[in-house]
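INPUT
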Amino acid sequence: MHGYGIATLIRERTDGELAVEDAALYQALHRLDRQGHVEAEWGPSENNRRARFYTLTRAGRKRMREEAATWRRYARAVEAVLEGI
Amino acid sequence: MFRYLRRPTKTVTSEVDEELAVHLEMRVDELIGRGFSPDEARREAIRQFGDVEFTRQYCRTQDLRKEGDVQRGLFFEELVQDLRISSRGLLRAPLMTLTIIVTVGLGIGATATIFSAVNAALLQPLPYQHPDRLVRVYTDAPPNKFRFSVADYLALEAQQTTFARIAGYTGRAMAFSDGRTAEQLTGKEVSWTYFGVVGIAPAIGRDFTEIDGRPGSPRAVIVTDSFWRNRLGGRADIVGTPIRLDGADYTLAGVLPKAIGPLEQGQEFFTAAQWKTPPRKGPFFILTIARLKDGVSSAVAGEELRAINRRIFPIWRTSYQDEKATWSLMDLRAYVTGESQTTAGLALAVVALVWLIACANASNLLIARVTSRRRELAVRAALGASRGRVVRYLLAESALLAAAAAAIGISLSAVGVSLWRDLAAGYFPRAHEVALDGATIGLVAALTGMSALLLGLIPAMHGTGGPIDLSLRAIGRSATGSAAVRRLRQALVGSQFAIATPLLVVAGLFLTTLSELGRVDLGFDPHNVSSVIVTLPSAQYEDGRVGAFWDELRRRLEAAPGVQTVAYADGRPPNEVNNFNNFDLEQFPTPAGQSQPVTPWVAVTPEYFRLLGLTLVEGRLLDERDAPRENIETIVVDRVWAKRFFPNESAVGKRLKEGGCTTCPWTNVVGVVSEVKYAGVDKPDQGSVYWALPPTTRLRYVLIRSGIESAAIVPSARRILQELDPSLPFSSVATIEELTDQSLQQPRSLSWLAGTVAAVALVLSMIGIYGVMTFYVQQHAKDISIRLALGANPRGVLRLIVGQGMTVVVLGVGAGLLAALALTRLIASLLFHVSAADVVTFAGAGLLLAAVGLSACLLPAARATALEPASVLRNE
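OUTPUT
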């Protein structure tokens, strides 16, 4: 998926609630690429432009599972604290 | 493979630009679709994006860093790949690989071994406290450096102000008895200051004190760690108890630590000397060492030494007349090292040359290999491998070879160093200190690095030189750059011969020396003569019993089967003379201020002459009448002595005063006998004097001539001695032939070293010239075939090819002979009866190399003339 696609996906999935700035997204992608969590490759986009497509690497997938688990625990904890308010 | 190709910086940055531009375009399209005008859409897209410039920079940095990481990984990956490919390639040429690894490894190993010996002996400071302040003090009467006498030592001790402290020592063999058996051990008698001067503190017990050195005090001894462990059971509570040496009790004051210096090495014990003021100036037996005070230069100390010597000279005028002799000092390290520099330098140069010649040979072999692989390399280059990449690939190959050679070299030098410690201790100083230390490992690393460069760089430069297309085009003709290659390889082979020549010359000179030494006439028939040293401890044998013991021993030995004659002496041929005496001839008195002549004086029993088979030239032999009472009144001299001092008249009846004594009665020469070697087979005869052995002498060399093999006599002599007195120590049971053989140890080792090295050099040079000529014939197969096809005489072709090779050989050998002429002058002192510029040796070495070169050229040349012109030309 290319950067634009990812930005669009985030917006649609969250109904615009989670507005990730494009700048931050690209910085994150290049950082992840350097760390080896994603792999980038040039390819044709839907409307036939040359775009840079990112895929998760094996290491990236593993890291994501860990981070997601951490986040879920955190969210549950916050939820538990807020319960009853 | 694609992603491994290096992406230039420009590509990385433009890719970031493109990615961001594409994103903005898509956003703009999306916004236009939602009703924005193009201008508004662009502004909105940029607003939504955030800081475009910063992001651009950030992403570029990240990408470039990633690129760097990839490149580094790639480098190692390529390195591993290079190493894998080259090791596979090398294994495909096992003979060449083995030759290179073994010869270069040999060179590295030998150089490292000799270097570690030289490093320990010549370069390392002595293992004493502040060793640079330690000096040896001696009486300087050029060319001799004499020891001190007790009179000298006590005077120096009392009057000197420039040394922190002085110490003296002298070698002393004594019999140690543990109550049951006795054995003769080597030790030293030292002044009580000795361990303080060198800075060694006993590990157990105490150092000597001034009281131990005072005449009349109880005798004290300090022993080495090994003596304490092996003979005293290693018990700490033994310190302070008495131990028996030469039948007397010595209080064990202390035990030395394990770490001791070269002066203590090989000794078992150290007794505290109790030197009294003597009536005469001599004898001179004390080796004096001293520690300079801080801030005092040796020049100042030397000045004071000369002053003290001048001051005491008049006191001893009656017993010592050598006015010319002065006192002087030298660095203690220089004394310990002695004259080993020449040997050491020579050995080091020789092994370093072996390493160099091995590298030259390896380089030569590798050039041939690269040349035959030029096509492969050119194809690689054409396919995009950079020149650096190809060089790196070739260097990986030579690095592999050098590393394998280094492994062999290290193991060889580990073996060599331990051998050296055991074998060289007798004739090379500080051999026990030799170790594979940091300096040696550093040298091995440096040699390995240089080997890799020498092996790889020349072939690599050559293999990748020149424009690629030219190389590729030239493949069709197969004579690629042959002229340049040939010149390069000829230069390498020429230098191989140039290095081999001096090595061969040196080996030849040493072999001649060895054979000359073996041919030296000892002056008597050493066959079936054996000898043993026996010492009678004074505590068990009072003067009255000594004579009776010797008579009984002789009676029993003569009764043993096979024994013909038994004699006693205080020395033995070929190199054990224990008494050098000075004398003043009545007829030619020594002028005041000059040194009196000094020659070996050997005390013997009357049977001695018959035993060695010395012929009486004139006068009579010694007999019972001549046994000295107070003074030596009669002597027999040998022919060399008689010719030296009385060249034109008979020596018999001449008189002299011996030992510098002016008040003693005259000593008369009563006979002249044929000469015998006493100062070693390699030393010229200086004339010897025989006098009758006093009956009370406690240390005697027993000489036995037998009718049967002397090796068979040794055990029965041993048995007879043990029967006579089981506690009696005796040592050095040996036949004279063994002793002579032992004295040739050093020239033999040198011959072995030089001979082995020369053989290696010879073989390598042969491989070199053979390789070059084979290559030449391969490259010129076409020319030769055409010539032969056109009817050329095969002999002419043969002569042409051999001439090519021999030009290189002759030039190399010529240069080598010139180098040898300069080199051998440095080893002149190690040669015997052969000149350093010996024509026969030089010519022999040159001819041998030329012959070897010629035979190595003939084989490829013969192969060339046997070429089948038709098939060669068809194959082209």
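end of record. The radius of gyration of chain B is 39 Å.
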